[in-house]
């Protein structure tokens, strides 16, 4: 896993909130390549334009990292739910009995994390952790600035383990299901994340909070 004390991803990654139509199309094209063609989680025939897009994108914020050649290195979206219409994980996941959820207006779901093949380990080299942490950092700062206090996520074990190694502890709130692979639903309170990082990885917390 990339050590946040040792790397400076801003030297080769340009991370930003993506809201321009053409840039969003590039993100959707990468998602199509990974989710439909490479991993076959989604049926390619349902996306004749080669763009993987769904109804949640209209109420999401997209965060992406671009390399020195302005190619998309990776992206993630944060689905918002100010109107109380629900989050993607709720269509597929059940919750443990007795779980209490925060108000939807102060929560968002982290989803559609996708990496360019050249930025994965394996086969593309050692940049997986760098790209993921960089887009998460952008999303974290956006969340704090816009009153988002909780993140939901339906995650596979490898990503969960990677985040735990640096002190990012999502709490499991439901049983595992087959949802684009074996995943379980999780919840993270950002204030709890800050308290934990202050104890176990203050250098990473400082990096998260530092100016982009």
Question: How are the secondary structure elements laid out?
Answer:
Elements: E1 14-18, H1 21-38, E2 60-66, E3 72-80, E4 107-115, H2 128-145, E5 150-155, H3 157-164, E6 171-172, E7 177-178, E8 182-189, H4 190-200, H5 202-209
Parallel strand pairs: 4-5
Antiparallel strand pairs: 1-2, 2-3, 3-4, 5-8, 6-8, 7-8
Features:
8 strands, eight-stranded mixed sheet, alpha+beta, Aminopeptidase, 212 residues
Mind explaining what this structure looks like?
The chain has 212 residues and is an alpha+beta fold. The chain has one domain: Aminopeptidase (3-Layer(aba) Sandwich). The chain contains five helices and eight strands, in the order βαβββαβαβββαα. The chain has helices spanning 21-38, 128-145, 157-164, 190-200, 202-209, and strands at 14-18, 60-66, 72-80, 107-115, 150-155, 171-172, 177-178, 182-189.
